[in-house]
User: Which sequence fits this backbone?
């Protein structure tokens, strides 16, 4: 879970503040000492931490805060606002050219996920009605061109390549003519990386930038490398000049140092974050939402956006009708699971629910494999069994377990939970309670 360690420590610190009622200057400074340690342990840049703590202290020990009715809440609000400020205030979008094509040049070290992220961005802007062209300008890494071609094929996005033996600068220049020929309005250039920064790589990138004059130069860095990512960003910005960053593997970064340091050190915004391996796992970076998640306030806006994007309203209305008539079946249950699954990993969805801290979730196994197991069990049933689970006797349970690669105990557990869910719906799912919005959609408990 992203920022798990930092979020847990900060939330624990602020829980103590809230429980005190009235606060003294000493209380605030003690809390800020804990915040400072938590940020440093999260691998946030030392100078960034020092400036952050000074700003918070300055605002939090004022008379109007300490003498307010809820001083603890006021201090948390100040920390939240300063975290947002630190990460760049608002979401920064891609600057599309007024006269197409928009040229986006990707740069970064090997292993940061640059090529995959090119594909993710192509998928993202294709959803916006754009017509992207991927350009294979990494002629050095074995299979880099092939990787981009496979991504393009899967996304139904054209890929421009001239092979391994052509100068990357010429490839990038020719890609602009190709975009005009096929009607692409966004060009995404995948340039070569190295295992570390060297003059040869930087000179090539400077030449490409000079030749195609990109509207956006985006640096891709691995969030899990912490301060190394910040140093790489600073170096690329000084030598080439970047317009923004994409942080990959944020879902695996339990500390979060890079996300909290990069903007302050480079002055450049984080535009997107990679939150998984799938092609749709690239999200716009919202500093305010991330600050809320770190402080245990949830991220309801992102949760709503995911639901709107992945949830079928027509099916939800049909489900309400079934609940009214108490006709909810295992097929409906499976359909709900699949729609929730499309919203992303369950652990990420739980992070967005206000009031749920990592500590509260300790020991709770939020496992997407459990959902896959349930899917397999229901898919191994006949249509009649899904509609009326009461017909599932011992021999049928054995057959379903074998067909789904699970155990009879797993099948029994699912049937028991489904039966309890139906009982609960019968109790609360009257026409009156559904119409009043007390019960809209079933969820696993």
Assistant:
């Amino acid at each position: 879970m992203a920022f798990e360690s930092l979020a847990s420590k900060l939330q624990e610190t602020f829980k103590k503040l809230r429980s005190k009622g009235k606060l003294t200057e000493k209380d605030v400074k003690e809390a800020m000492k804990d915040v400072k340690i938590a940020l440093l342990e999260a691998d946030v840049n030392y100078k960034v931490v020092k400036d952050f703590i000074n700003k918070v202290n300055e605002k939090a020990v004022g008379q109007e805060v300490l003498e307010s009715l809820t001083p603890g809440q006021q201090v948390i609000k100040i920390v939240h606002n300063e975290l947002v400020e630190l990460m760049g205030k608002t979401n920064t979008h891609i600057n599309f050219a007024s006269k197409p094509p928009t040229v986006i040049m990707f740069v970064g070290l090997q292993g940061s996920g640059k090529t995959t992220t090119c594909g993710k961005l192509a998928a993202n802007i294709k959803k916006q009605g754009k017509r992207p062209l991927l350009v294979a300008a990494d002629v050095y890494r074995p299979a880099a061109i092939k990787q981009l071609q496979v991504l393009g094929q899967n996304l139904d996005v054209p890929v421009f390549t001239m092979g391994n033996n052509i100068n990357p600068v010429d490839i990038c220049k020719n890609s602009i003519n190709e975009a005009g020929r096929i009607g692409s309005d966004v060009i995404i250039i995948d340039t070569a990386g190295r295992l570390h920064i060297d003059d040869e790589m930087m000179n090539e990138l400077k030449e490409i930038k000079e030749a195609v004059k990109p509207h956006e130069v985006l640096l891709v860095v691995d969030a899990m490398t912490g301060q190394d990512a910040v140093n790489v960003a600073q170096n690329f910005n000084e030598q080439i000049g970047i317009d923004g960053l994409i942080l990959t593997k944020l879902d695996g970064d339990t500390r979060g140092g890079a996300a909290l340091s990069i903007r302050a050190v480079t002055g450049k915004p984080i535009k997107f974050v990679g939150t998984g391996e799938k092609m749709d796992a690239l999200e716009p970076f919202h500093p305010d939402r991330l600050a809320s998640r770190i402080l245990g306030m949830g991220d309801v806006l992102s949760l709503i956006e995911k639901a709107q994007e992945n949830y079928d309203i027509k099916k939800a209305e049909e489900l309400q009708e079934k609940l009214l008539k108490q006709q909810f079946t295992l097929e409906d249950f499976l359909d709900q699971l699949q729609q929730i699954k499309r919203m992303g990993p369950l652990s990420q969805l739980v992070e967005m629910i206000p009031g749920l801290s990592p500590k509260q979730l300790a020991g709770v196994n939020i496992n997407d494999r459990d959902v896959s197991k349930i899917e397999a069990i229901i898919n191994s049933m006949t249509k009649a069994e899904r509609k009326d689970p009461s017909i599932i006797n011992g021999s049928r349970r054995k057959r379903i377990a074998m067909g789904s690669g699970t155990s009879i105990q797993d099948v029994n557990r699912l049937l028991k939970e489904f039966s309890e869910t139906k009982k609960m719906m019968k109790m609360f799912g009257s026409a009156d309670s559904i119409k009043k919005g007390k019960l809209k959609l079933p969820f696993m408990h």
Remarks:
- The two ends are 21 Å apart (CA to CA).
